[in-house]
Design a protein that fits this description.
The protein is α+β, with helices and mostly antiparallel strands and about 425 residues long. Helices cover about 50% and strands about 10% of the residues.
Length: about 425
């Protein structure tokens, strides 16, 4: 069988699958599942073009990794064929643990287990299946390899994961602020003492990358309508789990039924491999098919949430830089109770408070280093002449309150000005 395939990617053009082994990984059911998981969850509710998938993203990230490896080799960084294959596999599988609707439902179906943990578990299973061939990829993924720059390319502040999702999400949403000079950034990469650094000529492209990341978070990923829609989806699943635990019969696929009927947390998920097996059968279609059926369920809360999601009759979300006052929230809850005739406990399904954090650059975690013309390594914040680069490293906090549009605006009800 010919495994030297190419994929026509709308962002980069033709992407080559570099080896037969990587082709076999892509063909595996664990990986093919990513075709049915949207990359940016509920963002299509605001940007209709944002229907691209995790599958497209990881293929793109692999392509950028290949470009990075080629660049580093051209600068006399010695990279063996085994290391090349391993780092390509690591980036290819870094998101394999994502569940339905990506980050939105990450801790809803399974409590306290991140997609990185599930990715690691699935990579271990694939390693057994492929006779240990993923061992070096797993070592790089877990940052246990001696040559640290490989892990930085997979999961760092200037990794190929971020480069692809900024570029790709900008492309599919149509938000041009997210466009980055990924090709120039990659061309400016080099390695010093097994650490990934950027040549001084690339500093402006990195600055633009950090600014683009900041803008994309507030304009796309943390758009107030998007975070409101995500919370509605989370609450719909929470209500479904509550009803299932009370013995109420709900339509769902067998895989979703498993997670509705069982309380699965970090301890029992890791201890019982059946949970992982059921997880690999889940994707967006399980959730969507359930929502369509739950619209007609006799439970008012469940049917209302599902109907509003499917009709895009979404709750209103207000976003501000100061916390909402207790009297504002109390007035909101009182109005919701009267309008929807729900109890004090049930009102929690109709109002959601969130605190949102965002920083484009975390210098404390692992700084992006620039190698200047004298061969010295300096933090980009020190090397940059961009006056607001330090501001990009500060954590921005915003407060969100989501509630039904039917009850009017918050300010109108409380006479509180903000």
């Amino acid at each position: 069988m010919n495994k030297k395939k190419i994929i026509n990617d709308p962002v980069y053009g033709f992407v080559s699958i570099p080896s037969g082994f990587i082709f076999d990984l892509i063909q595996h059911p664990y990986f093919q599942r990513l075709r049915y998981i949207k990359q940016v969850s509920m963002t299509h509710m605001v940007y209709p073009g944002a229907l691209h998938t995790r599958f497209q993203h990881v293929i793109g990230a692999m392509h950028l990794m290949q470009l990075a490896i080629d660049t580093l080799r051209s600068k006399d960084v010695i990279i063996s064929d085994a290391e090349e294959e391993a780092v390509l596999v690591a980036i290819l599988l870094h998101d394999i643990g994502h569940g339905p609707f990506s980050h939105s439902l990450e801790h809803t179906l399974i409590e306290g287990v991140s997609h990185e943990v599930i990715s690691s578990m699935l990579m271990d299973r694939l390693n057994d299946e492929f006779g240990g061939r993923l061992s070096l990829a797993i070592t790089i993924f877990n940052d246990n390899y001696s040559r640290h720059f490989f892990h930085q390319l997979v999961s760092g502040q200037l990794d190929t994961d971020r480069m692809d999702y900024l570029n790709r999400d900008s492309f599919f949403t149509g938000v041009s602020e997210g466009v980055i000079s990924f090709d120039r950034i990659i061309k400016m990469l080099t390695v010093v003492n097994d650490e990934l650094v950027v040549e001084a000529k690339g500093i402006y492209s990195v600055e633009k990358f950090l600014i683009a990341r900041r803008l994309m978070y507030w304009q796309v990923y943390l758009h107030k309508t998007v975070i409101g829609a995500e919370q509605m989806l989370i609450k719909a699943l929470k209500r479904a789990k509550e009803l299932s635990n009370l013995g109420v019969k709900l339509f769902s696929t067998p895989a979703l039924q498993h997670f509705l009927q069982n309380r699965i947390n970090a301890e029992n998920f890791i201890a019982d491999e059946q949970h992982l097996i059921w997880f690999t059968k889940l994707d967006d279609t399980d959730i969507l098919s359930a929502l369509k059926c739950w619209v007609d369920h006799e439970d008012f809360i469940l049917s209302t949430l599902c109907q509003k999601i499917l009709d895009r009759n979404l709750f209103r979300t207000e976003l501000r830089s100061t916390a909402f006052l207790p009297e504002e929230i109390a007035a909101c809850k009182e109005r919701i109770q009267k309008f929807f005739s729900v109890s004090e406990e049930e009102v929690e399904y109709f109002i959601y408070e969130q605190v949102i954090y965002n920083s484009a650059y975390n210098a404390d975690k692992e700084p992006i280093r620039i190698i200047n013309n004298k061969g010295q390594l300096v933090d980009i914040a020190e090397a940059s002449d961009l006056s607001n680069l330090e501001a990009l490293s500060r954590k921005v906090v915003k407060y969100a309150l989501t509630y039904p549009k039917e009850i009017g605006f918050l300010e109108e009800r409380t006479n509180v000005k903000f």
